[in-house]
Amino acid sequence: MNASARAARRRRAGLTRIGALVLFVLFASLWLCVFTALVPGLARAQRSATRSRCYNDLRMLGLAALQYADDERAFPHLGPRSVLDGGTDTPATTKAVRTLLWRGYHDRPQGWVCVASADIDVPITDAAVREDLRRWFWGGAARGDPERPPFSDGLPDPALDATDELSYGWTRRALGANVRSSSALAADRAQQDPERAEAPPGEWGNHEDGAAVVRADGTVEWVAGGEDAAWLAATEDPVRHGFLAVRPPLRPAGFVRGESVARWLRRTALALLWTLGPPLLLAGLLAWRVRVSERAPPPAASPRVVVAPSGRVAPVRPSRVETLGPDERQRLGLGAPGGAVVLHAAQRCPACHDQVKADEPLSRCGGCRAVFHADCVAPGAACPTLGCGG
Q1: What value, to the nearest 5°, has the Cα angle with vertex 290 and ends 285 and 295?
Q2: Which uninterrupted H or E stretch holds 211?
Q3: Mean pLDDT over all residues of the chain?
Q4: Residue 191 has what DSSP assignment?
Q5: pTM of the full predicted structure?
Q6: Which DSSP string do the residues of 302-332 spell out, in sequence order?
Q7: Domain span including residue 320
Q8: What is residue 175's predicted lDDT score, i.e. its pLDDT?
Q9: I want to staple 100 with a disulfide (CB 3.0 to 4.6 A). Which of 24, 106, 199, 321 is the partner?
Q10: Phi-psi group of 311: left, alpha or beta (phi > 0 → left; psi -120 to 50 → alpha; rest → beta)
Q11: 18 within some domain
Q12: 275 has a pLDDT exceeding 90
C-alpha cells in the first residue's frame, strides 16, 4: 500500500465533529441508564449485606446469653435483681457482655462491633489472651482476672458511651431464664444522625434508618428509626418498653430519613462524578481523535502519466523539465560557444539515445541541464537522466 492510499485511509478513519458528538450522546445516554439502574440496586444490596452481618453478630450474642441463662437460670445482670442496671453512661453493658466471654459462651469479641458503625474492631494479639479468653479486657490488654468473673473482679470496664469496641446495648432488667420470649435482650446502642458528622463513640450509632433488636429467644428483628424506636430505651411499661441501655433517637422518623444540605450535596457530587466522568473522558478522547484526523497530512497527488508525442509514457512527478522555444533558444544562445547550453556532435537524447540536433524541438532539465528531444519527454515529466530524478 503506497503513501497516498494510507493517507486516504487515515482520513476516512477519522471522526467528524458531528460523528463524535452523536457517539458521545449515545454513550452518555447508555451510561446514564446503566448508572440509574445499577447504582440504587448496588446500594440496597450493600445495605442488605451490612444489615445481615449485623443480624448475625447480634444473634450470636443472643444465643450466648441464652446458654448462659440455661446454666445460671438468669441473664447477665450487674446489680440486684430488683434494681435496673445503669444506662449507656455506666459499665453495666460492658461487664455483662464481657461476662459471656469470660464464661466461655462467646469466643469472638470482634462480633460485638457492627460493621455499619464507626466502632473499631481490635484484634487479639496477645498470646496469653488467645489461650485463655478470661484474660481479655477492653483495648486488647491481658488485664482480665482468670479467677474472678467481671461482675466481681473490680476492673474498671468502660461505660458504653466511652468505648468504641461495643456497638450494642444490653438490657437493664434482671431477666430470668423463664422470661417472655418477646422481651428485648440487646439492640444497637444508638441510631446515626445524618446531621452530625462528628460525635462521641456512644452517640454515633450503627444505622441511619433503624435498629436491630435481639429478643430473649434469640430471634433478631428490625425496628424502624425515629419515634418507632423510642420504646427501646423506655423504662415505664414492663410489657411495651424495652428497658435497654441504648440512646433514644434524637429526631423523629421524618427527619432521620431526611438528609442535610451538605450531605445531599456530597452525594449529588459523587453521583455526578460517576455519571458524567466516563462520558467526559470519552468526549476528550474523541476530540483528540478529531484533531488528529484534521491535522493529518494531505494525501499525495494520485499518480498520473503523460503520453509524449512519440508514444512514450512517462510518470508525472514534480520536475523542472521545460520546453525550449525560440525565445529560450535565443536567450540561452543554443549552439553558440560559451552559451548556457552547448550541443556536441556526439550528444544523444537520454531518453531515446538518438543524436540531438540544434534545429530540433528540444527540452531541458533545470536540474542536471540535460537536453533531450521534446517529443521524448513531455513538458512537466520527470527527467530521464539517470540519477537526476528532477
Answers
A1: 125
A2: strand 210-215
A3: 76
A4: B
A5: 0.59
A6: PP-EEE-TTS-EEE--S--EEEE-HHHHHHH
A7: 306-390
A8: 93
A9: 106
A10: left
A11: no
A12: no
